[in-house]
Specification:
With 161 residues, the chain is an alpha/beta fold. It has one domain (7-154): Rossmann fold (3-Layer(aba) Sandwich). 43% of the residues lie in helices and 16% in strands. It is built from six helices and five strands, in the order βαβαβαβαβαα. The chain has a five-stranded parallel beta sheet, sandwiched between helices. Strand 3 (62-68), helix 3 and strand 4 form a beta-alpha-beta unit. The longest helix has 16 residues, at 120-135. The radius of gyration is 16 Å and the shape is globular. The termini are far apart. The model has no long low-confidence stretch (mean pLDDT 97). The chain binds ligand C2R. Ligand C2R binds next to strand 3.
């Protein structure tokens, strides 16, 4: 996307992309400039430090962070930026994402991470929530978001089959 990114989507591994692409898809649908990066608190700590400490200065307004297993990425990102951080627990093979969820949601008071549902639904909702945060100060985006929600409502069938 050519515009300066307003939302950063980071994830612990390329293996998380299958989940996190749904956040990116939503933002693309809503016309919100965003970037996607692989950043790991465990495997690339300096990359995370550089990313989180430079995020606000680069113009990002919200960070979406997805990780699985011992998912320290969202919390560590939140510890190094005042931007809102939305955490997506990626579904792990061993524990079905319960490990990811507990790792992300139980932050100590003072460093919030807005934690979404495990997996695809969480990624979709992270994208929508990030857009709605931006829409507080962007009327055109607010109207696109409301249109998206109306279209979703209109697309719900009345009959099950
Ligand atoms: N939870 C984290 C962090 C982190 O929190 O920094 N870095 C990688 N990971 C996670 O490890 C899982 C397996 O990664 P691989 O598939 O690369 O082995 C991924 O879900 C990733 O988010």
């Amino acid at each position: 996307m050519a515009d300066t990114p307003l939302i950063g989507i980071i994830m612990g591994s390329t293996s998380d992309w299958e989940t996190m692409r749904h956040a990116a898809d939503i933002l693309t649908q809503l016309g919100v400039a965003h970037e996607t990066k692989v950043v790991s608190a465990h495997r690339t700590p300096k990359r995370l430090y550089d990313y989180a400490t430079s995020a606000a200065g680069r113009g990002l307004q919200v960070i979406i962070a997805g990780a699985g297993g011992a998912a320290h990425l969202p919390g560590m990102a939140a510890s190094m930026t005042h931007l809102p951080v939305l955490g997506v627990p990626v579904e792990s093979a061993a524990l079905k994402g319960m490990d990811s969820l507990y790792s992300i949601v139980q932050m100590p008071g003072g460093i919030p991470v807005g934690t979404l549902a495990i997996g695809k639904a969480g990624a979709i909702n992270a994208g929508l929530l990030a857009a709605s945060i931006l829409a507080l100060g962007d009327l055109a985006l607010s109207e696109r978001l409301q249109a998206w929600r109306t279209a979703q409502t209109d697309g719900v069938a009345t009959d099950p089959a």
